[in-house]
Specification:
Elements (H helix, E strand, L loop, with lengths): L11 H28 L6 H24 L5 H25 L8 H29 L5 H33 L3 H5 L3 H29 L3 H31 L8 H5 L3 E3 L5 H14 L4 H6 L5 H6 L7 E3 L2
Antiparallel strand pairs: 1-2
Length: 319
Amino acid sequence: MGGETGPINVSRVMAMVIAGLLALSCYNVIEITISIFTTFKRRHGLYFWSMLIATFGILVHAISVFLRYFALAPNFPMCVLICIGWYAMVNGQSVVLFSRLHLVTTYGQYSRWVLYMIIFNFCALQIPTTILFLGSNRGVDSFVDTFNIYERIQLTGLSVQETIISALYIWETMTSLRPVLALKGPNGQKAITNLVIINITAVLLDASLLATEYTNNFDVQTTYKPVVYGIKLRMEFTVLNRLLAVVRACPSTIEDDQHLRRYSIHIDPSWTCDRSATVSAFALDQGLYDQSDRQRGSKGSPIHLLSSWPSSNHTQGSV
């Protein structure tokens, strides 16, 4: 079978589509790489490395698929590279979202659950798919039909995983983080809107990828996949950096007081810009809990952390 077990034989139009998807993937990689090295001042940490690995995976996966499909390189070595690039691209994308999850929630259990889900899906979905794919390309005919079935299962499972993470971002942004971003005025509201739109768009892109798989277009799906992951990575990188900038920014000025009243939040004029920015950024970046919430086992509210600042110099409010 073409695609699953070796080079493909397609029309000129389809070959041009595949080549165009490869070019788009490479363009995304170049743009993301430039953004990474011009944005990060300290090039270390989980966020930086997961971004870099995910970007590297997109490039490796796209080029190796192209070379394999058109018999421009030996089949089996390209299959190995496809798997390596696939691991880096898919898991790197999920780890990018995992690494910034503490920005929207102070409930540390969520991060642990997401990490466990990523590890479980790697073992249950990606490793079996790799074995079936490599076996099919080593001449084990009995693996081919099983691979075609399991390929759909793993693609669906990984799409569900990313949908869950996106839904968690949307939920926590609209609940726990919303009062904190309300302190930032219109910029905070814009950050909420952008985060929701980006995550919904990511889910729709995953749905389009599933559509190519379930319409028996395996060759299109494998070349379209790095394009989807490149677009999602670009969007998420932009919106997560914007979210971090807004969280660390000064709270709203007096001009935005009407906006804050919608959330029943009052800014004490004696609370300085630097003090407020430091408290909100520290609370979110560190994923702190209120002590009473720890004892109850429930999640601490970011706005509660801010309101717990000493009464002489603090933000008072309730949601």
